[in-house]
Design goal:
By secondary structure, the protein is α/β, with parallel strands linked by helices. It is built from ten helices and 21 strands.
Length: about 400
């Protein structure tokens, strides 16, 4: 039975690859004629812990939490909520309906914030409450969605120690996935991921983290110390550091994405310091898209000087299914963000969003009622920053701005 399951995984993955390649060929023609670049952005992607346990090569289930001692426990909670998960699932399984949306939009570049250490290390970070770990043999779960860049400057990439970070970098790079925001030295952590888009330009991704998101202060990378690209604060000094990083890599026609892990997990309020810093990234540092994450739910969207600011993208994929708390924020709902920009200027031309939720560790399209809830919530938040959203065809959202 297990061999048959693996065969099904292989066949499904092959079909997805062929369909995706065909869809991309059509979409590339469309995009090249318009001269625009479309970028897929998502919030936190957590493929460790419970999700790792349902994939074809689950690692050790041992975890070190007060609430739970086995990652299998999160599988059981999800199954109690929404039904049995037949394991092992295919690598493409967890992406569910998201794959059709990715094929439909055929973005030129796909960027996620990966909040998981990809390792078999057992050297967990002491005095930290939660540790996400996915076995390296499950890395194809990321290539199944054709992820191009993983931002790693977050509060989970070192959950399993420095060895876990080294393993993570090796696994992702070995799979052809670029990384930004973490490395074996400060220089590597500050190095941009650069994704060429043939005939159009390049997408440049820099990633940063702040302690306000829960990143331990000693996770910052040093000259000879692995770690993340950790910003001390949102000061002019931090802005100057980013200015220099952008200046070193940006060319004419590049679209620069600053991926930032910042702020609290819950709450809709955007700190004035965050907003000012995002504006300065665009106005003074040459950033074209601010890709903010850390919040477990979606936060306000702003367009400043025709450039996109996502203050909090929410959790896109996790193993929280069936766990209660903070229901008023609807952390079970997320968005797939498809930003279309003009590469010559980085100006936002359109933002389309597909609402999603998770059922049995699989991303599915959100209902009409949930889409309406997201629209109303984003409009309340957007009133402060001059944006609003409308429901387009097939329960998708589009952004409008002043």
């Amino acid at each position: 039975m297990q061999n048959r399951s693996y065969l099904c995984c292989f066949v499904a993955a092959a079909l997805i690859w062929v369909q995706g390649a065909q869809g991309s060929e059509v979409a590339d023609t469309r995009h090249s004629s318009s001269g625009t670049i479309t970028i897929f952005l998502s919030g936190d992607v957590m493929t460790g812990r419970g999700i790792d346990q349902v994939l074809p090569h689950p690692g050790s289930a041992v975890i070190h939490e007060d609430f739970m001692k086995s990652a299998r426990g999160y599988v059981e909670i999800a199954e109690r909520a929404n039904g049995r998960i037949k394991t092992p699932v295919c690598f493409s399984y967890v992406w569910g309906d998201a794959l059709k949306e990715l094929d439909r939009k055929a973005p030129d570049v796909r960027i996620v914030n990966l909040e998981t250490s990809v390792t078999a290390s057992s050297d967990y970070w002491k005095n930290k409450g939660i540790h996400y770990r996915m076995h390296p043999d499950n890395t194809p779960v990321l290539t199944a969605a054709k992820i191009d860049v993983c931002a790693l400057a977050n509060n989970h990439v070192l959950d399993w120690g420095y060895a876990g970070l080294v393993d993570t970098l090796a696994a992702l790079h070995g799979a052809g996935i670029q990384t930004a925001g973490a490395g074996i030295s400060c220089r590597e952590a500050r190095t941009a991921a650069v994704k060429p888009v043939p005939g159009k330009g390049r997408v440049v991704v820099l990633a940063f983290g702040l302690r306000s998101s829960g990143i331990p202060s000693d996770w910052g990378a040093g000259d000879k110390k692995p770690g993340v690209c950790l910003l001390e604060d949102l000061s002019d000094r931090s802005l100057g550091d980013i200015q220099r990083q952008v200046a070193q890599v940006k060319r004419n026609g590049d679209v620069v994405v600053a991926s930032i892990h910042w702020g609290s997990n819950w709450g809709h309020r955007i700190a004035r310091a965050q907003r000012d810093f995002a504006h300065q990234l665009i106005e003074a540092a040459g950033v074209d898209i601010v890709h903010g994450h850390s919040s477990h739910h979606v936060r306000a969207i702003e367009v400043y000087r025709d450039k996109l600011i996502l203050y909090g993208c929410g959790d896109f994929l996790n193993d929280y299914e069936g766990i209660g708390g903070y229901e008023q924020y609807r952390g079970d709902l997320s968005l797939m963000y498809f930003a279309t920009v003009a590469p010559a200027t980085g100006r936002l031309l359109a933002l389309e969003m597909t609402p999603t939720t998770i059922r049995r560790f699989r991303i599915v399209r959100a209902s009409g009622a949930d889409t309406l809830w997201l629209k109303d919530t984003l409009n309340r938040q957007g009133a402060v920053v001059g944006t609003r959203v409308a429901i387009a065809g097939d329960n998708r959202l589009t952004l409008k701005w002043d």
